[in-house]
Design brief:
single chain; 851 residues; alpha/beta; Rossmann fold; Isoleucyl-tRNA Synthetase, domain 2; Isoleucyl-tRNA Synthetase, Domain 1; Ile-tRNA_ligase; ligase; protein biosynthesis; tRNAsynth_Ia_anticodon-bd
Length: 851
């Protein structure tokens, strides 16, 4: 049994080239595993909950925007179902094999209930908590966001500012001056640098590091001021300040960090307030000033500083992203950011403590392989999971799986495994995923077990409300190792492979890993394979606004401008450019043309095989095979063997390239060119003719089977049209059954063919491009041992060398060839110089025509 767990695509919008890379690569694995003899389980999934769908239904114009949770959730369900239908059609159109009748969707009651079961176990292990903490916040959609939901725009120039805070109790004697201390009255400032200037009114502290050297500087333009103004900045960052400010600075001395730690400075907003300078481990002198502006509620490290110094954390920005009245009249109600931006704000949220789990998971990762082609990416996943400490799992929306819990007026939360399982059971039995929203609070508390498990103090009971936050979608799909499986037997089997885009190191690979290690102390998969993304021929990302998005339907089905390359064309493109790497897969007209050319050459190869087999019954033949045919079948065997091992290693690009080469070189150049004469001119039914037909038949049959994971439609077409083929369906036999028996080959075959290939090269070189050697005789000189080999197939030498006649001679000097005019006459039928004087045709052609 082999299982591939489908990382569910988001149930929104049409299928795109990104889906094509992902689903087709998965199909290569599924089909090749079937061919390798495994029973395979691959259940397709869809990730249905989340913000994009919920925002979309708010914007639909035709109908009034849904208001109640019920309306929103049922509208969202419709959006998801429509997308699932469209995407599923596309995936099937691409020839993807999957359990299409039993897909899993994260919105189904079965999935939600199974997800809640596991969530209950996380709660029981005390890994889930609710607290006031900074999280990434989306003011426009009014909800917390996961780190992986943030889209970083690299081109966006963030507004950064230098800002000075007036130091209160730092004075001249604490400075190590490089020359005579100044005599003028002096004022010292701490210089900070921030990319979030809107948090300056919310400043709570400045952090410095004992490992950094700090300088005392003066701006040249301020030297003649009546009061000397000095700035403190990390020594390494003075030149950067000069560059950014376009001001010359003078370094006048240094100050030790211990003389800064514990000092106070004036708040820039509340003039009467003195704020502290703390020491913190995250401060560095690679960017900024080495003095870090700290706002406890608005940064993750800032939060840690507050906790370690016993500071109180308050947020003066509300959930809409506006300053609150605590900051005074000037800022009250003003929006801190433009719309659509996301920043770290503090609010009450649910978290999973993943610090210890991440470390445990990281050490377990040694057991698995994480790869893209030949590169090992395990280290990057290990690093990502060890640096994470909390996972914010709550969202203030309604289209999702609920977080069952009760909350009192002070924000204290009460939940338990019993409560969660009770909701899971209700969901499972009713088939209704809205139950949490619908159920009456009293009904929950009426259940004795549930009520007892929640341990609610009596006096808060009247204030209780149901928690209406929903779960982060990464928790939905992250529990697929449990919830996407049908029963305990399926769950016993650890998924063999997961395959997703390289971005899932931050997403799904992690959420599967952390939850599985937390609950089962077991890895959720044995192997991770990653792929890259699609870009255009000029290396641009696909984007609707640039207009370079390639619609996979236009590729498969064509348009007025573009030739249809069919599902197999799309698949071949994925094999050639989407597999064996985590880099980008290019797509564009030139690349499509190249794919098309390759597919056409494959089709032509197969067409020749099928054409040559007309009238052949497909059965094994009793007479010995001609040397040329033995050679052909022998290379088919090696190709099959090599391809099997490439499938085992998931090397689909190698298979695609090998196949193209095989058809062009081994088949067309080394076989068709030589066998054509026998196939066209020998008597039908003769041993020599049957030998060629048998060879073509076997070649077509073996190739059609072995390439079926990549090109299933071409494969099925070949099997369908191949005369005398009893097997018309792909993947009915394992690839191992395709290899021929040794009895077909004479022992000296490969040595003999080595000499033949050498002779072909020499012959080609001496003939040049103008002479058609098929109409010539040749005199061959070879070493005695080579002559001995050639003698074993002497009668076949004209065919093996594609000439009219061969005279074999021994020579100590090695291989050489003389081209001569034939002494025999030209035969009109076979166009060779094989006719005896006086005859109408050569003897072979005469035989072929006698009825
Ligand atoms: Zn002839």
């Amino acid at each position: 049994m082999f299982e591939l767990l489908d990382g569910p695509p988001y149930a929104n919008g049409e299928a795109h080239t990104g889906h094509a890379i992902n689903k087709i690569l998965k199909d290569f694995i599924v089909k090749s595993k079937i061919g390798l003899g495994y029973r395979v389980r691959f259940r397709p999934g869809w990730d249905c909950h989340g913000l994009p769908i919920e925002l979309k239904i708010g914007k639909q114009k035709e109908t009034p925007a849904p208001q109640s949770f019920k309306e929103i959730r049922s509208a969202a369900r419709i959006v998801a179902d429509e997308a699932i239908g469209k995407q599923m059609n596309a995936f099937r159109r691409w020839g993807v094999t999957a359990d299409w009748d039993k897909p899993y969707t994260t919105k189904s009651s079965k999935y939600v209930a199974a997800q809640l079961d596991i969530f209950g176990q996380l709660v029981e292990q005390k890994l889930v908590y609710r607290t006031f903490k900074p999280v990434y916040w989306s003011p426009s959609s009014n909800t917390a966001l996961a780190e992986s939901e943030l889209e970083y725009n690299e081109k966006h120039q963030s507004t950064s500012v230098y800002f000075r805070f007036k130091l209160i109790n730092v004075s001249s004697p604490e400075i190590i001056w490089s020359s005579i201390p100044p005599s003028k009255p002096s004022q010292f400032y701490a210089l900070v640098w921030t990319t979030t200037p809107w948090t300056l009114p919310l400043n709570n502290a400045i952090c410095v590091s004992p490992n950094i050297k700090y300088s005392v500087i003066q701006f040249e333009r301020e030297i003649n001021n009546p009061t000397s103004t000095y700035y403190i900045i990390a020594s390494n960052l003075v030149s950067e300040l000069e560059k950014q400010s376009e001001q010359k600075c003078r370094i006048l001395g240094t100050v030790k960090s211990e003389n800064l730690i514990g000092k106070k400075y004036k708040s820039c907003w509340h003039n009467e307030l003195a704020l502290p300078i703390y020491e913190a481990p995250h401060v560095s002198d690679t960017v900024g000033t080495g003095l870090v502006h700290t706002s406890f509620a608005h940064g993750f490290q800032d939060y840690d500083v507050a906790v370690s110094n016993g500071e109180r954390i308050q947020s003066f920005v509300d959930s809409r992203g506006c300053y609150t009245r605590h900051l005074g009249h000037d800022l009250d109600g003003k929006h801190v950011l433009g719309d659509g931006q996301r920043e770290a704000l503090s609010s009450q949220q649910w978290f999973i403590d993943v610090e210890e789990i991440g470390k445990r998971a990281s050490s377990m990762l040694d057991e698995i392989t994480v790869s893209a082609g030949d590169s090992d990416l395990r280290g990057s996943l290990k690093q990502l999971v060890t640096t994470r400490n909390s996972w914010c799992i709550s969202r203030q929306r309604v289209w999702g799986t609920p977080i069952p819990g009760l909350v009192d007026e002070n924000g204290e939360a009460y939940t338990s495994r019993e409560l969660i399982e009770w909701v899971a059971d209700l969901t499972r039995k009713s088939g209704n995923t809205d139950v949490w929203w619908e159920v009456d609070l009293n009904k929950i508390l009426e259940n004795e077990d549930v009520r007892r498990s929640l341990k609610i103090p009596k006096d808060v009971i009247p204030q209780l409300k149901k928690n209406v936050d929903i779960m982060d979608v990464w928790l939905d799909s992250g529990l697929a190792w449990h919830a996407a499986k049908e029963n305990e037997m399926e769950r016993e089997h650890v998924t063999d492979v997961v395959l997703e885009g390289v971005d899932q190191f931050r997403g799904w690979f992690q959420s599967l890993l952390l939850t599985s290690v937390a609950v089962k102390n077991k890895l959720p998969y044995r192997k991770i394979i990653v792929h890259g993304f699609c870009i255009d021929e000029k290396n641009n990302k696909m984007s609707k606004s640039v207009g370079n998005v390639v619609d996979p339907i236009l590729l498969t089905d064509g348009s007025l401008k573009q030739k249809a390359i069919g599902a197999d064309g799309l698949r071949f493109w994925v094999a050639l450019s989407g597999s064996e790497n985590a880099g980008e897969s290019k797509i564009g007209p030139k690349i499509i043309e190249d794919v098309d050319r390759k597919i056409v050459s494959l089709r032509n190869g197969f067409r020749f095989m099928i054409g040559g087999c007309q009238g052949f019954n497909g059965n094994p033949i009793n007479s010995p095979l001609k040397t040329l045919d033995q050679d052909m079948l022998h290379s088919v065997d090696s190709f099959v063997k090599k391809t099997i091992s490439n499938y085992e290693e998931f090397k689909f690009r190698t298979v695609a390239n090998d196949l193209t080469q095989f058809i062009q070189r081994n088949f067309s150049s080394n076989y068709v060119k030589y066998v054509r004469d026998r196939l066209y001119c020998d008597k039908i039914g003769s041993e020599s003719h049957l030998s060629a037909q048998f060879t073509l038949h076997r070649t077509a049959y073996s190739l059609a089977h072995i390439i079926s994971p990549l090109l299933p439609h071409l494969s099925a077409e070949v099997l369908h049209h191949l005369p005398g083929s009893h097997e018309k369906q792909i993947l009915r036999h394992t690839f191992m059954e395709l290899q021929s028996e040794e009895k077909y080959y004479m022992p000296e075959l490969s040595q003999l063919m080595k000499v033949v290939h050498e002779l072909r090269t020499v012959l080609e070189a001496s003939a040049g491009p103008k002479i058609d050697t098929s109409k010539k005789d040749i005199i061959v000189y070879v070493k005695p041992e080579q002559e001995k080999l050639l003698k074993t197939s002497e009668l076949e030498l004209p065919e093996l060398l594609n000439v009219s006649g061969v005279e074999l001679n021994e020579s100590r000097d090695g291989i050489s060839v003389e081209i001569t005019d034939s002494k025999r006459r030209y035969c009109e039928r076979c166009r060779k110089h094989t006719r005896k004087d006086g005859d109408n045709l050569c003897s072979r052609c005469f035989d072929a025509l006698v009825v």
